[in-house]
Amino acid sequence: MRIAITTGGGDAPGLNAVIRAAVLTAIDRGWHVLGIKKGYAGLLGDDEVIPLTRDQVRGIGHLGGTILRTTNRGNPFSYPVRQADGSFIKRDRSDELIENARNLGINAVISIGGDGSLAIAHRLAQKGLRVVGVPKTIDNDVSGTISTFGFDTAVNTAMEAIDKLHTTAESHDRVIVMEVMGRHSGFIALHSGVAGAAHAILIPEIPYDLAKVCDAIMAREKRGRFFDVVVVAEGAYPSGGEESVIGESMPGQARRVGGVAESLARQIQEKTGKECRSLVLGHLQRGGMPTGYDRLLATRFGGAAVQAVEDGKWGHMVALQSPDIVTLPIEEALLHTKRVDLGHDLMKTARRLGISFGD
Fold it and tell me: Which pLDDT band holds residue 245 (cuts at 50, 70, 90)?
């Protein structure tokens, strides 16, 4: 058996732990393992395919990033091809990818990625490629799994930032608005905000009313608390409005959501008269060593992915459904984006603590 591993989409702490676990588990079965560099680029001639041995995965489980590198622009069904004039066109190179995999003797592919990468894996499986998926996203927005690796690390990074903002905000009697990742789902904002004792948390699931956010800030001032920390997910938007957009990251890519913290801080300052500052945590949330929880989850996912290959679970992904790691059809996970359950105990706890959601 010869399997290949690929990592696609945004990076997340724990990717290397998945790779390590999958490689060691496969080698234990006497299999050969290849690593496809930069998403599927290695199979399309734009990068390389390398052998993965025990030596190459030794000591990588605690490292952030991915030794295989990754990309957000590697969809083989709509692959960017540079023209002579420097412009790009999109081409369907999926048949070429499958043929190249066959020529390399690859029996199965373990695709590690978020909803975009899983959607690609599902389409490749429909075309006959033997694929098993591993869900990855710091946003924790993949359905079918209680958690994705990278999420816990991102929450801890955001929480530590909130802890630091508390001291400077209180020293200056300021309102500080911190923007975290979460285009469609507010899990990072909610979890880090509650853990870090934020005073307002704004998430995409609840369109916020600016007046109510300001009312909560002024109510704290009446109680003698002159500072506030507001955590806002990048995809949060005002009631009756739209999410904030800051343009494209690269030609041909989807628009980038973000910038809400700056505009929100300006509006709060105008309405309350309080001095406001904004901060975008950005890619700090993707970097650094994975937490112990994420290392364990990633390791379990890597081992389970190899077992799924052995069981012939093509077109399936591994998932955490406590206390077990299970497999389920990728198609089921793609039916809808997982979002914060507004009736969840954590939401109720936050409201009992007096945290404002702008509603």
Answer: confident
